[in-house]
Write a structure and sequence with these properties.
- By secondary structure, the chain is of the alpha/beta class.
- It has three domains: 1-212, Up-down Bundle (Growth Hormone, Chain: A), CATH 1.20.1250; 226-340 and 365-420, no CATH class; 477-669, Rossmann fold (3-Layer(aba) Sandwich), CATH 3.40.50.
- 58% of the residues lie in helices and 11% in strands.
- It contains 20 helices and eleven strands.
- It has helices at 2-27, 36-62, 65-89, 111-143, 150-174, 177-213, 230-256, 261-280, 289-306, 312-336, 344-369, 375-393, 404-432, 490-497, 534-540, 549-552, 564-573, 600-609, 628-637, 666-669; strands at 433-439, 442-450, 457-463, 466-472, 506-510, 526-531, 556-561, 580-585, 610-619, 641-647, 657-663.
- The strands form two sheets. It has a seven-stranded mixed sheet with strand order 7-6-5-8-9-11-10, with helices on both faces.
- Helix 17 packs across helix 18 (600-609).
Length: 673
């Protein structure tokens, strides 16, 4: 019977965390490919985990063993029936992936829509999976009173870790989303059958013992001592802090590179690994792990100061070390404070609640409270404060050992240095920033400075660590294109030399920035920009008086809010192809690229909007990813030619840039200009 418990818990955890990157990958293109899609998805998963633990706690503490098993059989049965009905009668592509009618059609706050899509797609099955670990551990402690159920908790986290590792390296590269979702649905049915068998065995056990203990839902195994008031609060905070750090670290990683499942999985895998190690065996956690956290804190301060000057791999290593050591410290202390099995469902309930609180803070409160990603240093400082509190309450901690003076010095030094560096960094940010705002799509801010080697001042727009455009402040030069869009850039050459007819040029631009490309517009031209971030639109349209490219352009300027891919799809569905002479893709120069815009399916959409002799101009000035081979393969697939144009900046207003021009118009590519 113990084997049934182990296999069922392992499979449930595997499916529980396999579906997270799967669903995140599915809905990512619907919301512009932004890193916050994963963060919002994690909030949903954490809330469902909390609901599952609350369910387990409620039925274990209030229902007899017989009623527990019967109720859970109903939950499993309904969830399986829902999957089967969707597979047979719904118009969805798979039983867990909602159809295209769930795609967003506006640029409002996407979080409610993301939560709704995930609830409809996997809500009940995910809820059933989330109940498994805590409920089956409670049942195990009833069936095997001499065994500790916490080994199964470690086994559960190992299954979760396995699901996360398998997805980016095995499943995603080999299988389409449809096949992935279908296989997951089949795996869930297998799980439900296995969990149902365990519930039936528990039902038989309840009947066998009903005569002597009819009303007992869970016997006391190791006594009836209730946890004090302080311990549940520590359970809550020691689980909330790693959750906050997990999401904050993931945001930083994906903001600086790309929104891909691997960079979702890596932080979550480290987070789960700390759970596995800390709860599998006490010897895996030593309180001297705080030395690693001490080193990681100083390395993080180094990254904070140096910023983009450090190689991205170095930044990733520091973020990974910081997250892992912080999680080991918090989860190690959490494992030391775990209660006797009688109270394990309440323990798991508070651990899940802590996870939700961390997610709520990062997703809902931090964007309202902060104009930058300050929750990461805040979470790290909280980790150090918690460590001080927990150790002060435990006479066996290093605070009371022979090296207590050294320990206190390191604790205070790390916390003080972190606060000092963060404060100085925030001061510098506020001093150089004219305006800053934060929303679902990230942090946007405006600065003012001189172009290098000149006396000319300019306003610059930043998104994350990437400059998205600049404009001279002096009126005589305000219409001059700058940065990656100067006249010798790929976009500049295309817009200057593409053959015009009497109706003018029709130009589509994916990615607005400050609207620099509108500077190439002439009377009769149409420049149609697609932009998902409402803050970018607001600033480019002249809010604050910083940028005037759109207002100054003699061309007709149109802005389409929302995800570019969805907007282009909707235009085709409505029978309104745009017939662009030039379609500019300017979404790949940031550190976090929307990879969903580089698929064959997307290029089919682009070409459907492009004239037969039109040009697709793709901006690939990315410091970390070489996109040229990807575009070369796409061009070859569609029977088109690709030309790389690299332009050297002038060290002043014009920046180095790389553009790829893709077209069937070979005569245009061979023009001497």
């Amino acid at each position: 019977m113990l084997l049934y418990y182990s296999l069922t818990i392992s499979l449930s955890a595997f499916l529980l965390f396999l579906v997270q990157p799967l669903m995140g990958r599915y809905i990512l293109p619907w919301f512009g490919g932004t890193p916050e899609v994963w963060s919002a998805s994690m909030l949903f998963f954490q809330v469902l985990l909390l609901a599952g633990c609350a369910y387990s706690y409620g039925i274990v503490s209030r229902l007899s063993l017989r009623k527990q098993s019967r109720l859970h059989l109903v939950v499993l049965g309904v969830s399986v029936l829902l999957i089967l009905l969707r597979a047979m009668f719904f118009a969805w592509e798979t039983p867990i992936t909602p159809g295209s009618n769930w795609q967003p059609h506006d640029s409002g706050n996407p979080i409610p829509r993301i939560l709704a899509i995930l609830s409809v797609g996997i809500g009940l099955p995910y809820f059933a999976l989330s109940t498994t670990s805590s409920l089956l551990q409670a049942w195990l402690s009833r069936a095997y009173s001499g065994r500790s159920p916490y080994r199964l908790y470690a086994l559960s986290n190992f299954g979760s870790l396995l699901g996360l590792i398998v997805y980016p390296f095995v499943i995603e590269p080999a299988l389409s989303i449809k096949v992935q979702a279908d296989l997951w649905s089949l795996g869930y049915i297998v799980f439900a059958l296995g969990c149902g068998c365990v519930a039936l065995k528990v039902l038989r056990l309840a009947r066998a013992t009903a005569a002597r203990n009819a009303q007992q839902s869970l016997p006391a195994v190791e006594g009836r001592t209730r946890p004090g008031k302080a311990r549940p609060l520590l359970w809550l905070t020691l689980s909330a802090c790693p959750s906050l750090l997990l999401l904050a670290t993931t945001n930083r990683m994906t903001q600086d590179i790309a929104v891909v499942p691997f960079l979702w999985v890596l932080p979550l895998a480290l987070y789960l690994l700390s759970f596995v190690l800390c709860f599998a065996n006490a010897r895996w956690y030593s309180r001297w792990f705080f030395v690693g956290l001490f080193v990681a804190t100083f390395l993080y301060c180094w990254v904070l100061v140096e910023g983009n000057r450090l190689h991205i791999l170095m930044q990733l290593m520091v973020y990974a070390l910081l997250l892992f050591t912080a999680c080991m410290v918090c989860h190690g202390e959490l494992a030391r404070l775990r209660p006797e099995p009688k109270h394990l469902t309440g323990f798991y309930l508070l651990v899940s609640l802590g996870g939700v609180l961390g997610g709520v803070f990062v997703n809902l409160l931090a964007p309202l409270l902060f104009d930058n990603f300050w929750e990461l240093p805040l979470g790290l400082a909280t980790c150090w404060v918690l460590l001080l509190i927990v150790w002060q309450m435990d006479k066996r901690s290093p605070l009371y050992g022979k090296m207590f003076l050294s320990v206190i010095f390191m604790l205070v030094l790390a916390l003080a240095w972190l606060v000092f560096v963060t404060f100085k960094y925030i001061q510098a940010f506020e001093r150089t920033t004219l305006e800053a705002s934060r929303n679902f799509y990230g942090v946007v801010w405006v600065t003012e400075g001189r172009f290098e080697g000149t006396d000319d001042w300019a306003y610059e727009l930043w998104h994350g660590v990437t400059r998205h455009g600049a404009q001279y402040t002096s009126a005589p030069r305000q219409r001059e294109p700058t940065a990656y869009y100067c006249e010798k850039s790929g976009a500049g050459l295309t817009l200057l030399h593409y053959p015009r007819d009497e109706d003018g040029l029709r130009v589509g631009v994916i990615g607005l920035g400050v609207g620099t490309l509108a500077a190439y517009g002439q009377p009769g031209d149409v420049f149609r920009f697609y932009e998902i971030n409402p803050e970018i639109i607001r600033l480019a349209e002249g809010a604050g008086g910083y940028f005037t490219y759109l207002e100054d352009s003699p061309a007709s300027v149109e802005i389409v809010p929302g995800d570019a891919r969805l907007s282009l799809e909707h235009e085709l569905a409505e029978g309104v192809p745009q017939h662009y002479d030039v379609l500019v893709l300017d979404a790949f120069n940031s550190h976090s690229i929307p990879v969903h815009l580089l698929t064959r399916e997307c290029f089919e959409i682009y070409l459907a909007h492009l004239k037969a002799e039109g040009v697709l101009a793709v901006h690939i000035s990315n410091p970390h990813l070489n996109l040229q081979p990807v575009l070369a393969k796409l061009a070859d697939h569609f029977g088109m030619e690709a030309l790389l144009i690299e332009s050297q900046g002038d060290g002043q207003a014009c920046a180095d840039s790389m553009w790829v021009l893709i077209t069937r118009n070979t005569a245009f590519l061979r023009r001497p200009e």
